[in-house]
């Protein structure tokens, strides 16, 4: 096999795994999305991917994709994967808080495999740190991995860095690496491999450091046709089970309408001004139903006897569009899929689209996840999604939304985001409010804790200039304090907010465990 590929989600922690109450999936959903076009080529026996171990089965493809949480705990599994597969293409996905883990994994691969492996970094962090500006010029934030290598701040362990839509890029990366191997040339020749992706569809930048300067290849303008993208379930199967769906096997599904959120909250890395607007929004409902049908079919085929569920990873379900929500309810009603599902809405969307949510509940919607963040948005500079302020306070509308969901039989979960500039008293008050709502309505459950982290945001980071080369959560006491959080940081607070104090985080956790 000329091409031997593996994909890894880089760890966000130096040590210790996710806590008991952490709301994290066992699936590397972003990696599955990024690799799905290549996986379909493999399943169809097409090209270089069709001659790899990825061509055998969904289980074989999953065995070559690794989700890491902790470098110390998961490095043995990573080493074992490298030893077993001897990859010549290593794909690493990373958020900003995972950059130190990505560097460590890339360094380890180079130590073991040298120039016989092409190490490619992609994911949310490169997509925010290396980008094309309005004039068509490739820009590098101070945390751009290409810039960091060029400035000697990290070792030159990434052969290529991919920013943006990587689905078709990854397909062609595999073809290019296979071509290098067939020609008895090193797969780590960045310029040669990058030349092979020039025709890839989508909006992307592929960059590298050639030892002298930063170089880049930019997308040629061919659109990524979302209607024809394969589903993650058909490519990698469904093996996770979310508690809120009573043990049903749960697939991650997407409407593929965009790479972020329709809102533009200043603190959020998924904000519209960073990730772009919606694409092919008028056909979102149909794409989503196709993915849900795929989950049902794959569960029935691979795990007969288990029920099927899906969680929609859109920032808000089909962008919150009333027309698309109505279409979704109609198409699901006609399809009669044996799938229960959950999704995300904002507080104001729940209150303004109540009848549509009732219609969706009738065809499978069991669970809605909301972001509460704060009881008083004005204290953190406001939120773009706080759309109906004239109808009451954010706190009162949050209660109304939870009440509305409970009244129609839809369970609710909530994300709590600290570190936006609020006081410790307000943090504790928010947890007590959550406990009161749970007592009154049985929701929200679960309650997910997060501590706001500043992201590069394509240069829109208010000049904070973080490089992210140190672990966002240092080892020892900090790791223990943040064990039950999702994304969190001790070193990279958002603009205008002070860094957390470990004693305050520990106090939050004690109250959370007591009340929630």
For the terminal residues, how far apart are their CA atoms?
52 Å
Q: What is the alpha-carbon Rg in Å?
A: 22 Å
| Main β-sheet description | 7 strands, mixed
The percent range for strand residues is: 5-15%
Low-confidence stretches: none
Mean pLDDT: 92
**Structural class based on helices, strands and sheet pairing:** alpha/beta
Total number of strands: 15
Strand adjacency order, main sheet: 2-1-3-4-7-8-9
Helix content: 25-40%
Judging from the principal axes of the Cα atoms, what is the shape? globular
* Structure annotation, total helices: 18
Structure write-up:
Strand 5 and strand 6 form a beta hairpin. The chain has a domain of 214 residues. The strands form 3 sheets. Strands 2-1-3-4-7-8-9 form a 7-stranded mixed sheet, with helices on both faces. It has a 6-stranded parallel sheet with strand order 10-11-12-13-14-15. The chain is of the alpha/beta class and 516 residues long. The model has no long low-confidence stretch (mean pLDDT 92). The protein has 18 helices and 15 strands. 37% of the residues lie in helices and 15% in strands. The chain is globular and about 70 Å long.
